[in-house]
Amino acid sequence: MLKNDLILRTARGENVERTPVWLMRQAGRILPEYRTIRQRLSGFKELVETPELAAEVTIQPVDILDVDAAIIFSDILVIPEAMGLPYEMEEKKGPVFPKTVSSAADLKSLHVATPEDLTYTIEAIKITKRELNGRVPIIGFAGAPWTIFSYMVEGSGSKTFSKARKLLYTMPDLAHQLLQMITQSTIAYLKAQIQAGANMAQVFDSWAGVLPYEQYKAFSLRYIEQIAGAITEVPVTVFAKGAFFALKDMNDVSCQTVGLDWNMNVQEAKALLPQKTLQGNLDPCALYGSIAQVESATKKMLDTFNGHAHIANLGHGVYPDTNPDHVKAFINTVKAYTS
Ligand code: CP3
Fold this sequence. Notes:
This protein is α/β, with parallel strands linked by helices. Helix content is 46%, strand content 12%. A seven-stranded parallel sheet has the order 1-4-5-6-7-8-9. Strands 2-3 form a two-stranded antiparallel sheet.
């Protein structure tokens, strides 16, 4: 049914004809076609919550950039909202939560989300599935519980995440209760995404890098494993940004693919994770170089992964002011690469 299932076969560790490629945040502001749609709406949330439009911007990078997968257009912050903690997306500033969680009373006002709270994303996947007609697989996604917890406690991004981290010391039971609620919500949500047509699932632990190793295991990895262990229908990718210290522990997580950010040592990751497919990890800033520089940086990156199951990507989301021609140069270099 799928005309191009390269990324799925790579995730499963099968021998493949070439390295598959997609970019985190490919459905977004790098494309003028995205900005045109976005401009006529009241804001980011309207796009996320309008399934026809979310499907359209999900497919744009497949049409324009010719990537090997579509990632459904949504945000990791739909989960806290579905649990009873709404977010706002402020222009130029990012997400803000008017209410945050800091006590047992706050926790009481929240509930475990059900997919019925998130029908707009589920509907967007169904439309995307129909319109893609098997051209490439669809990646479903969610935030890792620790990253979602951080937003729910901080109320926005943060330099230190000291409010979220403080709670792990002062109210560890409360922290575990909230993390468990997020985990249950996320499992149900990812399963609904898969039911609707997602062929893969990625868990984004964007703020993994702020925790000490022992806390990372207790407050993040443990919940990621609950999610990965529950998703048996499709290959799972775990991208824990900054968690170089926990790479070895990813062996104990029931995922097929581990995402690497651009700081990570690829040789070390290959040695530590012989059974996992690796995804990444070109520095997003490498795309600001000339086309010739992009091509050579991409080849160099591919050389480092040589001999290991690999899905080419950047080490984090593509920055909004990146020239799409340079993104294309990255993609085309991966496709033309022979080791
Ligand atoms: O990857 C894709 O193309 C699919 C869509 C996607 C978005 N957000 C759309 C988006 C995905 C996978 C995300 C995940 C996400 N959202 C993460 C994890 C990945 C990462 O970058 O670490 C995080 C931490 C968020 C939270 C979030 N959403 C922030 C911090 C911001 C503001 C910063 C920014 O990039 O502008 C957003 C907004 C957001 N999410 C935009 C898009 C396209 C830009 C808003 C706009 O178009 O106005």
